[in-house]
Automatic annotation (TrEMBL):
It comes from the Bacteria. It comes from Niabella yanshanensis. Residues 34-111 form the Rhodanese domain. This is Rhodanese-like domain-containing protein. Pfam families: Rhodanese. Coiled coil: none annotated.
């Protein structure tokens, strides 16, 4: 029983370390992509977007992106975001499935905004 608990603890610690490493790496990659002129894509609903959004972000909700993705240039870089990060993952994957090569998940709005602020 103790062996199983120790193994679970080790796995949890390794996973937490991986998450921290991935988060730091992703932050650097997103900051660089933003600096290079990536377009910010808000995939929340129109109502959520109207209540507040990142300046300059285009709004194509996850619910409409399957039809509206043709409005986007597949040669450009995009960073998707939403309220908590789940819809942005789905939208980024959907765009990649449709041939977009430079699509990044920005996660939650507040996290992406923090990355965009000068330090």
């Amino acid at each position: 029983m103790i062996t199983v608990l120790l193994l679970a603890l080790v796995i949890a610690l390794v996973y937490a370390g991986y998450c921290l490493y991935r988060s730091a790496h992703l932050s650097e990659e997103l900051q660089s992509t933003i600096a290079e002129g990536a377009l910010i894509l808000d995939v929340r609903t129109e109502k959520e977007y109207a209540a507040g959004h990142i300046n300059g972000a285009a709004n194509i909700s996850l619910g409409t992106i399957r039809k509206r993705y043709k409005e986007l240039d597949p040669q450009k870089a995009y960073i998707t975001y939403c309220s908590h990060g789940l819809r942005s993952v789905k939208a980024a994957n959907l765009l990649r499935e449709r041939g977009f090569k430079q699509v990044y998940n920005g996660g939650a709005r507040e996290d992406l905004e923090k990355l965009m602020k000068p330090h």
